[in-house]
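Example for tutorial group B:
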């Protein structure tokens, strides 16, 4: 019963309101204009898509890595140390040559350091004389 009474009140209210003649046309035009603007905004916005081949490449890489990690055995093969020389004197001779080579390289480095040290002490001496004057 209450709904019938509410319906009568609503009908009475709506009968008193006068609707403009071109209201429907204006609303339709406004809706069309807003829809066109929205579609332009959507069309202008760049859509970032990941190509299918990139996704497949990543999936294939992951599958290969998993397959290799599962299927390859993780055996540590023992390392056998073998002599490179059968003659002791040849080994001694080769070792002496290698040590001489390393020594010559070290001497070159030490010579460069001593030259640099001499240059720095010369510069320091010149700086002392400059400060005095």
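The residue assignment follows.
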């Amino acid at each position: 019963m209450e709904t019938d009474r509410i319906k009568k009140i609503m009908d009475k209210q709506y009968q008193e309101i006068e609707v403009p003649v071109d209201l429907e046309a204006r609303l339709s035009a406004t809706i069309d204009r807003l829809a066109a603007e929205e579609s332009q905004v959507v069309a202008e916005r760049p859509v970032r898509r990941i190509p299918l081949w990139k996704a497949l490449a990543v999936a294939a890489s992951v599958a290969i890595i998993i397959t290799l990690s599962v299927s390859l055995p993780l055996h540590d093969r023992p390392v056998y140390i073998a002599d490179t020389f059968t003659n002791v004197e040849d080994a001694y001779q080769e070792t002496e040559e290698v040590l001489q080579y390393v020594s010559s390289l070290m001497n070159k480095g030490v010579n460069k350091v001593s030259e640099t040290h001499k240059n720095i002490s010369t510069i320091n001496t010149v700086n002392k004389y400059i400060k005095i004057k």
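The mean pLDDT is 83. Compare this with the pattern of hydrophobic and polar residues in the output above.
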